[in-house]
Amino acid sequence: MKNVRNISIIAHIDHGKTTLSDRILEITGAIEPRKMREQYLDSMDIERERGITIKSHPLRVFYKSKRNGEVYEINIVDTPGHVDFTYEVDRSLAAVEGAILLVDATQGVQAQTVANTYKALEHNLEIIPVINKIDLPNANITETELEIEDLIGISSDEIYKISAKEGTGVEELLEAIIEKIPEPTGKVEGELKALIFDAKYDKYRGVITYVRIFDGQVKPGDKIMTFSNKHTYEVIEVGAFTPEMKPTDSLKAGDIGYIIAGIKEVSLARIGDTITSANKPASEPLPGYKEVKPMVFAGMYPGVPEYYEDLRKALGKLKLNDSALVFTPDHSPALGFGFRCGFLGLLHMDVVRERLEREFEMMVILTAPNVEYKVVLKNGEELLINDPAKFPEESEIQEVYEPYVKLSIITPPEYLGKLMNLVQNEKRGTMISTENAGFERVVLNFEVPLAEIIFDFFDRMKALSRGYASMDYELIGYRKSDLVKVSILVNKEPVDALSIIAHRDKAYTMARKLVDKLAELIPQHQFEIPIQAKAGGRIIARSTVKALRKDVLAKCYGGDITRKMKLLEKQKEGKKKLREIGRVSIPQEAFLALLKVGEDENK
């Protein structure tokens, strides 16, 4: 194992992790030049188009050191940079001994840089700080060095400067990995302990688990067991990522690779779980395993009701490659049969929607996202509510608790006042502390309700700071809050999918904006449509969609006024009758009106 090195690449979103992996692939000759393409490890079209990594990707390369001439096996795990996928970063760091901390020379230390650094320190990893994009004309290397020094206390002499795009300094970085990252520890002859840090589904071979072997070894034909559910399987194939999957005779302590064992569902191979031998199991699992919990919930309905079954199958197939996606059947009087889906965040929700459209050609209606609330009823019963339609009546409720997050914002000092005002006055946040984050950078720490930051917060923050501020957040638990359900009635009929849960102080403002927005989005009908918002047992806001008016007096020329009055009266009666029996068609845009309310505030 002395010639094995396991590392992870951590950084803020768009700081060049995947580009660095590309250069390492080229330098080590792991990929034939004719097969090479940009963002090689990003396999999904969405990842390539958006320039973001959604799934972490392992990679094994062999590098001949120029210092001692020996060949080293380097296992690299490229990680996602977006805050929605922090759990994947956490598991990836648990599988390695060291981390490359990549910082963009043009942007400096960002919120995710800080969060990922602390995660790496929690795992006791050796950190190699690297400044990337030094070839760009607006690169500010000296300032970035000061920020990194302030963050992890490493002097500027130990910070590597590279251009992942040009390949400058990448070989020196590979030498540093060999020299500074410790070799893996563990016993090949010990009891098998393998950490699952990722998994994907293959329709021909079942679930492929990505593992790091800490102790023991595994080979085809072995009987294995997962610790969380005690299911046993027979190993069909083991191998490494070179970067394509390449079968090997076995995986030993210190190796990173994959195991195929006929597992039928990704949910059975849980990320963070431990694999051990079924015949001679380890006494305890590897530490740190916890279930992935969705943070944001939304209703998802097929664009055409007849496609409900197709949507169910599409979500089932998508879940095979995305264990964080959660869905349960749901029904809305306005939208028919659909599903209540749980996501890690808004980006995750958007990625799922886009994958459904591209991979399964499914057009879906998504309702505005919500968080999960704890409701204690007067009879002592405790409920977890993630759908506003299922929120109990106010007379039945004893207390309501909502999820809070610790929010960290890194910003230049000149935007401090605006951002503090946004969080404290508009988003019900409480300031905890401020600290210096190096040259011309301040870290603001707040405690904020999760519901306040899942809609338009990111865009507002970027707009107020001219794009310079960055954020990171983590769930810290539930707190008591004064919340009410705001129901929307269209033509006096409640539309569950448009209901929202709001803080009592904000209920009227949100209701007023929402009914006005819906009045703009719902098309005119032959009859007048009242749109009302109801909270606490009374109507608190109303807007009206005027009826389409037919000129019934066009045929009257001259004659008595009473004739005209009769015609108008007849039209009025007809519209009244039509309003009682007519159905209102509500477009997709109306269900995302709540998001649009936030957008209008920005303007």
What is the overall silhouette? globular
CATH-assigned homologous superfamily of the largest domain: P-loop containing nucleotide triphosphate hydrolases
| Alpha carbon gyration radius | 28 Å
Largest sheet composition? 8 strands, antiparallel
Structural class: alpha+beta
Mean pLDDT: 78
CATH class (first level) name of the largest domain: Alpha Beta
The portion of residues forming beta strands comes to: 25-35%
Question: Which CATH architecture of the largest domain would you pick?
Answer: 3-Layer(aba) Sandwich
The parts where pLDDT drops under 50 for at least 5 residues are 598-603
Helix residue percentage: 25-40%
β-strand number: 31
C-alpha end-to-end distance: 59 Å
The domain count comes to 5
Largest beta sheet: strand ordering: 11-10-16-7-8-15-12-13
Describe the structure.
The chain is globular, with a radius of gyration of 28 Å. The protein is 28% helix and 32% strand. The protein has an 8-stranded antiparallel sheet. It is α+β, with helices and mostly antiparallel strands. The protein has 15 helices and 31 strands. The C terminus is likely disordered. The termini are far apart. It has 5 domains: 177 residues, P-loop containing nucleotide triphosphate hydrolases (Rossmann fold), CATH 3.40.50.300; 85 residues, Translation factors (Elongation Factor Tu (Ef-tu), domain 3); 71 residues, Alpha-Beta Plaits, CATH 3.30.70; 108 residues, 2-Layer Sandwich (Alpha-Beta Plaits); 119 residues, Elongation factor 4, C-terminal domain (Alpha-Beta Plaits). The relative contact order is 0.08. Helix 7 crosses helix 8 and helix 12 packs across helix 15.
